[in-house]
Specification:
23 helices, 6-stranded mixed β-sheet, two-stranded antiparallel sheet, alpha+beta
Length: 475
Amino acid sequence: MTIDATRAIQIVRDNFADFDTAKPSWLPIADNRVSQDDLRAVAANADGKFSSEEAQAAQFLLDSKAARSLLDVGAGRGTVDGTISRDDVDGAWNSVQSGELDARLLDTAHGAGRADGYVSANDIADARNDAAIPQSLKDALGRLPDDLPLPTQVQTALAMHRNAGDAQALDSIGKLVDSPAFRGLDEDQQKQALVLFGSDTPVSQQVRGQLGGIDLNDPAALRKFMLTEARPTDLWRNAAPDSGVADSRRKPYEISGPETIDYDFPSGTQPNASESKPALKYTVEVDGRSIEVILPAADARDDGKSYPTLEQIAKGLAAQPSASLAATDKVVVNPYTPKEEDNGKVVDSGADMYATGGAFYINPHDLDNPRVQKDFDFTFMHETAHLVEQPGGFFGVPMEWNHAVQKDQLFATHYADNNYVPEGSSTINPSLGTDPAEDFAEAYMTYHLVKGTPDEAQMRALMPERFAILDRMFG
C-alpha cells in the first residue's frame, strides 16, 4: 500500500501506543512521546511485532522532514523538538480533516520553528525535495511569481496545487494574480483573495464564476467584492444538499409524545398578544436536553400552508452544537405570522423563524415554497446564536468582536453586514460600539457548520479573527 502524509498520520493516530513504546528498553513505559528512535524501531521492525503498515508509516516519517515536523508541532504549541505527543497527532489529524494539511506541511518543512503559518524560503527549498509534498505543489513552488511578497507566492502555489486538474480554475487564478486589482491589494488582502478564489471548494467555484464582473484594473472594486459581495457562507449554503447536515454529524435523538394541550400561540392579528388553540406537545431528547416541540393540532394546520414535520424539527435540533441546545427550551410551530407596530400601524412582522427567551418559533410557508431540511439545520443555528453567550466587552461594548470584524474585512452573508456597511459603501463603519448581533449569528452558524469538514480551512482563513474568538468561546 502507498503511504502518503495523510495515511502516515492516520496510522500513528490509530496505533499511538505501539509507537509510544517502540524504542528498545528493558521496561517499555508509555510516556506520551514518540521520538525518532521510536520511529526507527518501528521501521526496522526487528522482532516483527509491528504491522507492515506501521513500519511503512514510520519509514515515511523518517524520510519526510515536512511530515515529521508537522506531527511534531501538530498541537500548535512549542517548536520542532524531535518528539510527537498524542495531542500533536490529534492536531495533525485535524489539519487533514479541515483541509489544511498542505499548508501545514509547508509551515515547518525545514524542520525548525513553530506552527505559525509563516513559510520561509528555507521551508520552500526543503519542500521541493520532500516525499510528503504532492508533485503538483512542488511544481507550483517551482513557478512562484517572484515579484510578489513571499507569503503571496506561497498562497498562489497552494491555489495552483489545489486546482491542478482544473484548467479553467487555473486560468481564473492566473488572471486574478496578474491583474492590477490584485497587485494593488496589501499582503493580507492578497492572501484573502487567493483563499476566496483559489480553494478547491464549492465557494471558490462559484466566486470564480463572478470574476468577469469585477473590474480587475481597480483594487477598490476587488476589495468591495470581497467585503460585501462574495458572501462565502451564502454560496456554501446554496451548494449544500437539501438534506442539510450529514446524518453522521447529527447527535442521537429520541421523540416522545404527543400530549394534547391548549397553547397560547403568538397572535396573528395583534402585536404582543396571544391566541389559545389546540396543540400537540412532543419532547425531543437530544444531547442530555429535553426540548418541547409544540405543533398546532391537525385541524389548525388545514389552512393551505406548508408546515414543518416533527422529524424535520428533531433532525434540525440534532444538527445543533451543544451551546445552542443548552440555550433552547422549546420549539413552537406558530400557525400565524406575528404582528408588530410600525409607525402606529399593525403590520406583519415578516418573521420566518426567530428565537427569544429560550424558545424558537417557526412560521408556516406557502405551499409552493416548502422548506427542506437544510433550512432547519442552518436557520436553527443562526437563530439560537441569539440565545447563547454573546461577545462582550467593557461596559457591554463588544469591542473585541468589532475589532475582529475590522481586521477580517469580509462578511459571510448578505445579512451579516447590515449594521456595519452603510448602503452603497465599500468600507466598514469604524465604530467599535456597533451591535454585532447578526454578524455574530452568521459567523457562529458558519463556524459550527464547517468545523471538522474540508470547508473549514477556507472559512477559517477568510475570517481568522472571528474564528479565533469562536474557538475560545465554543471550541
